[in-house]
Write a structure and sequence with these properties.
Layout (H helix, E strand, L loop, with lengths): L6 E5 L3 H13 L3 E5 L2 H10 L7 E5 L7 H7 L7 E5 L4 H9 L4 E4 L4 H11 L7
Parallel strand pairs: 1-2, 1-3, 3-4, 4-5
């Protein structure tokens, strides 16, 4: 029996960032679904019990719920969160990591570092 291909939820209010991450994930064989707000993602997450991404890539600053609030609402779900942000504030970084974030990357991020963070978050072995 083959395992279902892992998929990543990408939550960012910037369409170009969502597109770039989707393309990058596709290049390493991962499926993804994008959302422009935390509210949009949580609506899907809460409405469909079987909707469980293997990892969530979250922007910190978005209209509506910010990334930290989305992370808080996902507490206990066991789904790893990788934060991406253009605004790297020490207090925010510490709060995100203390709440269990798998990684915290500043935009623009290095593609290889991002891929490694995603693979580690979904327990895939990084390829050499």
């Amino acid at each position: 029996m083959s395992k279902v291909k892992p998929f990543v939820a990408v939550v960012d209010d910037d369409q170009s960032v969502r597109r770039a991450i989707k393309r990058l994930l596709r290049s390493i064989g991962l499926a993804s679904e994008t959302f422009k707000t935390g509210d949009e993602f949580l609506d899907m997450f809460n409405s469909i019990p079987s909707y469980r991404p293997d990892c969530i890539v979250l922007d910190i600053q978005m209209p509506g719920l910010n990334g930290l609030e989305v992370q808080r609402r996902l507490a206990g779900s066991g789904i790893p969160v990788i934060f991406i942000t253009a605004h790297d504030e020490t207090g925010v970084r510490e709060q995100a990591l203390a709440a269990g974030a798998a990684a915290y990357l500043r935009k623009p991020f290095n593609d290889e570092v991002f891929i490694k963070a995603v693979r580690m978050a979904i327990n895939q072995t990084p390829e050499a």
